[in-house]
Design brief:
By secondary structure, the protein is of the alpha/beta class. It contains 18 helices and 13 strands.
């Protein structure tokens, strides 16, 4: 199929969620120059999209799923909903988006007590959901580079691992004047995640402390120097990550009745984007109802849970928390920069879907690891954040929050291989006490040496083969064919 690129162009503006100030998109903005608040990007021509019937939007997006046109193969098959200001030549595509939604096998669904599926975001190019936002942010950045003829652009981000991997990868692909610098908390990024920005050629700088410390430095750099910030304060990233919502709706044939989603909160950018995406589709009639959305946090980093734990909205006060070590590293954030977006969009979500439409739960570290291993023992490739979501679903089921006819979609934000070190710590019972994790024997697994190297030295090749086969047959209680 050779589908033409959309001709529609709209006007977008930055809108501050704190003071309401508005700014044009001709230059990069991260926080409001007037009050320091965070932005959402608003389509000033959104009402014009309502002139197209909902069934036409659904048919258009469904047809683009088969497109071979590079700019429409990924998140920008939903171009009109994301960033209808970009030209085709500026759109950067590395294979992001269109990640599979994989149903839990019947045996696992029975254990959990509900039908559910993982959306495997680890099958994005850098093996995490962050690629969705980076595809949009770098496409916009390429447009600025082209229009302004910039000869050097330094991108910078703070990260717990996945953001740095995605930013470095897309910067390497964009090339030319675009260079990447990432700030990481020393000793708090898995070796697998650390290898990614290094392999992509980024300048990797480590700081003592946690992610929140890195974020403060990055914010100061963005406010003081000419750098392009790529954390979720970048509103263009939020636009790209909305594609997750569009894909979930499309997979379910645009019918969100009896669907609930579980999403890690972390820095709150992704859950914000997902809410905004569903709200846009609902406003255009593409979906007739909103799904229910559950944010999930670890008890080791749960400021958003604590905020919504207060039932009286008038008494709610957001307060950052000091985090303690978490296996869900991307969620180990005590002061999420996108919380103002969460608060703003959650109210809109509840206005349409009712008080139960948006909820937050928190889960223990033990439950996160156990849930990840349980999922992967049933054929999934869940990361620790996916384990966090499964733990959240199990808790919600136990608390009676999920109806029997509801189907859950869990956000596995990254590939399980990024967190294999935590699996090793579980299997070897070597978690430091701060993690508060005690391995369960039924989940532990270790390799077994069949015969010793010394035994091998005493046998010829044929004898060795027969001896090893006999040992294995005895170990596995195999029955002879004779």
């Amino acid at each position: 199929m050779n589908m033409s690129f959309p001709k529609l162009r709209c006007r977008l503006e930055y809108v501050c969620l704190s003071c309401g100030a508005r700014y044009g998109i001709e230059e990069l903005h991260y926080t409001c120059p007037k009050c320091g608040g965070v932005f959402l990007l608003e389509n000033l021509d959104f009402d014009a999209l309502k002139k197209t019937p909902a069934q036409e939007w659904r048919a258009l997006f469904d047809s683009r799923a088969a497109s071979k046109r590079t700019a429409l193969r990924g998140i920008f098959r939903f171009y009109e909903l994301i960033a209808p200001v970009l030209e085709e030549q500026d759109i950067l595509y590395l294979g992001e988006g269109n990640t599979p939604i994989v149903d839990a096998p019947a045996s696992l669904a029975a254990l959990v007590g509900r039908q559910f599926a993982f959306k495997n975001e680890g099958q994005n190019p850098s093996a995490s959901f962050k690629d969705r936002g980076m595809a949009c942010a770098f496409s916009y950045l390429q447009a600025l580079v082209r229009r302004n003829k910039w000869d050097e652009v330094l991108t910078v981000c703070a990260s717990t691992g996945d953001t740095s991997a995605a930013a470095a990868l897309y910067a390497a692909y964009a090339g030319g004047p675009v260079k990447s610098v990432v700030l990481l908390p020393h000793g708090k990024v898995t070796p697998q995640q650390l290898s990614q920005p290094l392999g992509s050629g980024a300048t990797v700088l480590e700081l003592p402390g946690v992610f929140d410390d890195c974020m403060k430095v990055v914010e100061h750099l963005a406010e003081t120097y000419r750098v392009a910030l790529l954390n979720s304060k970048n509103a263009w990233r939020i636009l790209g990550q909305e594609s997750y919502a569009y894909e979930v709706a499309q997979w379910h044939d645009w019918d969100m009745r009896h669907i609930c989603l579980f999403v890690p909160v972390g820095n709150a950018g992704n859950i914000t984007a997902i809410m905004n995406g569903f709200l846009k589709m609902h406003a255009l009639g593409i979906i007739a109802s909103l799904p229910r959305l559950f944010g999930v946090q670890s008890t080791h980093a749960d400021p958003v849970f604590r905020y919504y734990e207060e039932s009286d909205p008038a008494k709610r006060r957001f307060e950052p928390v000091a985090v303690t070590p978490s296996v869900a590293q991307a969620a180990m954030i005590g002061n999420p920069v996108s919380f103002p977006r969460v608060r703003y969009l959650a109210e809109k979500f509840k206005e349409i879907g009712g008080e139960e439409a948006f909820q937050v739960v928190h889960v223990e570290e033990q439950d996160i690891m156990d849930a990840m291993l349980l999922a992967n023992r049933h054929g999934h490739i869940s990361c620790t954040q996916g384990g966090e979501c499964l733990a959240g679903l199990r808790l919600a089921v136990a608390q009676g929050r999920i109806a029997k006819d509801e189907r859950a979609v869990l956000d596995a934000t990254a590939h399980s291989l990024k967190f294999s070190g935590f699996q090793d710590m579980y299997f070897s019972d070597s978690f430091p006490p701060a993690y508060e994790i005690t391995p369960r024997k039924e989940y532990m697994n270790k390799p077994e040496l069949v015969v010793s190297p010394a035994e091998k030295q005493t046998l010829n090749e044929q004898e060795f083969t027969i001896h090893v086969a006999n040992v294995i047959a005895k170990r596995l209680n195999l029955q002879s064919k004779k």
